[in-house]
Write a structure and sequence with these properties.
The structure is a single chain. By secondary structure, this protein is mainly alpha-helical. The protein has a domain at 1-25. The protein is 58% helix and 0% strand. It is built from two helices and no strands. The chain is elongated. It starts with a helix and ends with a helix.
Length: 60
């Protein structure tokens, strides 16, 4: 019975420690500026003829 009480006390202490860390711990995110180039995968305006002929060949 004493072992069960010890286990309950240890679990309670762990829960209290976890709640305390959640409220008082340093949990602010580190902020930094990120610049990533974005590439456009769409075809250029002049390339529409090539895509039209490809779709015609696919439909046959």
């Amino acid at each position: 019975m004493r072992l069960l009480k010890l286990v309950v006390v240890v679990i309670l202490a762990a829960v209290v420690a976890l709640v305390g860390y959640a409220y008082f711990g340093d949990m602010e995110p580190r902020q930094r500026e990120v610049r990533v180039p974005v590439t456009d995968a769409a075809p250029a305006a002049g390339d529409t003829a090539a895509t039209d002929s490809e779709t015609d060949a696919d439909s046959e």
